[in-house]
Amino acid sequence: MHSDKRKGKIGIFDSGLGGLLIMRGIVKSLAEYDYVYLGDTARVPYGNRSKRTIYQFTEEAVRYLSGKGCELIIVACNAASAQALRKIQRSFLPRWHRSVRVLGVVVPTLEEVFDIKGSRIGVLATQGTVDSSVFTKELRKINPKAKIFEQSAPLLVPLIEHDGLRWSGPILRFYIDPLLKKRIDTLVLGCTHYPVLKHTIRNMVGKGVRVISQDEIIPKKLNEYLVRHPEIEKRLHRNRGRTFIVSDMTDHFRNRARKWFGNHVTLKMVKYY
């Protein structure tokens, strides 16, 4: 394991398991790089927090990951991407970490929606993301004629975080049926936790609805970003390092991490804020 402060790493931050799903997808396609995962499991979920609090949590994470040598940071949380990312990029980084780049998950997802040319778009997301209206605002910029329907799903993240997937069917049906009644042709899973449920959701909505899952989109978009920005890519080290840090340790999180990344995975608990 390399020194924590050695530069050239990719940091991935989320409140919980969703970021692990994004990291799993990224590592599958970009395995050679060094990664640091930071899960704020003590304060999950973010989706029901105020904008001010979400910004505070995001800044704390970016500051910590920057100190760990991460030169490229993925905010793998839609609520944080929607409500904190722009301020991080425009105010925090220029003042404190000029060389660090911080990317979110909302814009790459919107690009995918544009590419497939959906006209009746459903968005399933946390309450905070829906309240921000970020998907509606940005999708209308891309396609002013598209019909956009957002549905908050506040129970899904706690269900996923606390090993409650066996009860997900009726709850998913409760959230998805209103979108299906709108005759959507595209469904955006606007929370990085939701890929855990993507197969169930695809079966539920049928083949006539294209389901966009961020664990499939973000790795592809990150690879495209690195191709477009060789000046950033060349700063990244290729030692296949993997570091997993959480703010609270739970058996469910540990078990998921080992299932997705192997039994050798070690989680380190750090109170970084």
UniProtKB/TrEMBL annotation:
<comment type="pathway">
    <text>Cell wall biogenesis; peptidoglycan biosynthesis.</text>
</comment>
<feature type="active site" description="Proton donor/acceptor">
    <location>
        <position position="77"/>
    </location>
</feature>
<dbReference type="GO" id="GO:0008881">
    <property type="term" value="F:glutamate racemase activity"/>
</dbReference>
<keyword id="KW-0133">Cell shape</keyword>
<dbReference type="GO" id="GO:0008360">
    <property type="term" value="P:regulation of cell shape"/>
</dbReference>
<dbReference type="InterPro" id="IPR004391">
    <property type="entry name" value="Glu_race"/>
</dbReference>
<keyword id="KW-0961">Cell wall biogenesis/degradation</keyword>
<feature type="binding site">
    <location>
        <begin position="14"/>
        <end position="15"/>
    </location>
    <ligand>
        <name>substrate</name>
    </ligand>
</feature>
<dbReference type="GO" id="GO:0071555">
    <property type="term" value="P:cell wall organization"/>
</dbReference>
<comment type="similarity">
    <text>Belongs to the aspartate/glutamate racemases family.</text>
</comment>
<dbReference type="InterPro" id="IPR001920">
    <property type="entry name" value="Asp/Glu_race"/>
</dbReference>
<dbReference type="InterPro" id="IPR033134">
    <property type="entry name" value="Asp/Glu_racemase_AS_2"/>
</dbReference>
<dbReference type="Pfam" id="PF01177">
    <property type="entry name" value="Asp_Glu_race"/>
</dbReference>
<protein>
    <recommendedName>
        <fullName>Glutamate racemase</fullName>
        <ecNumber>5.1.1.3</ecNumber>
    </recommendedName>
</protein>
<dbReference type="GO" id="GO:0009252">
    <property type="term" value="P:peptidoglycan biosynthetic process"/>
</dbReference>
<feature type="active site" description="Proton donor/acceptor">
    <location>
        <position position="191"/>
    </location>
</feature>
<feature type="binding site">
    <location>
        <begin position="46"/>
        <end position="47"/>
    </location>
    <ligand>
        <name>substrate</name>
    </ligand>
</feature>
<feature type="binding site">
    <location>
        <begin position="192"/>
        <end position="193"/>
    </location>
    <ligand>
        <name>substrate</name>
    </ligand>
</feature>
<dbReference type="InterPro" id="IPR015942">
    <property type="entry name" value="Asp/Glu/hydantoin_racemase"/>
</dbReference>
<comment type="function">
    <text>Provides the (R)-glutamate required for cell wall biosynthesis.</text>
</comment>
<keyword id="KW-0413">Isomerase</keyword>
<keyword id="KW-0573">Peptidoglycan synthesis</keyword>
